[in-house]
Amino acid sequence: MKALNISDEARRLGIFVALTEVVNVTVRHSDHALDEIISKIEEKYKIQDPESLKNDPVVRAYRDFYWRIGIDPTKVRPSGEALRRRVARGSKFPRINTVVDIGNIASIETLVPIGLYDRDKIAGNLHIVLSSGNEQFLGLGGKNIEKLDKGIPILIDDEGKVLHIYPHRDSILTSITLETKNVVIVGAGVPNVDKTLVKRAVDFVVDLLEKITGGKREYETLVIT
After folding, report:
1. Hey, what domains does the chain have and what are their CATH numbers?
2. How many CB atoms lie within 10 A of CB 154?
3. DSSP 158
């Protein structure tokens, strides 16, 4: 079990998380049952006006947090909003592998950003802190290592590796691959988002992981503030 600590500085930004772990998953490229779920999601959201999303209170809460940490949410969308907009504009739901797809399903349905991390690539426990400056980060899909500015909320492990820029970018270091067996699930909470919604988003992921990947929940979802 991985403990997660939120520093006082990060807590003052209103950051909280929902956390649990699922063990002994089997990750595959795709799954027929998951294909059917995703097809229904595409049908459900392709008729939504993407511009109506800005009026959703959950979207507004994440957008407000983005502005607060210096990110323009009209250029870098919160993950759930980005997925809804993608489908509403006629594009297909993005497919990576069964575990990542399940996280994205939970995010598009709840609008809560979901982080999924290969537990066996994490050194020790987890910490949400504000960057001191010059930390190195290699994001998913990125080719170049970035040096972070000071004061950015980040998720690190006991070795100080930056695993996530909160709440919108994951590192390649702990990414989910076909070899992953154990998954840490983190639902990203911000001010004015109900804690029960973030917990429900994480539980949504767990339920599908157990059904689709054969994994097993290791403990009840914790809400950490």
Report:
1. 4-30+97-224 (3.50.40.10)
2. 23
3. T
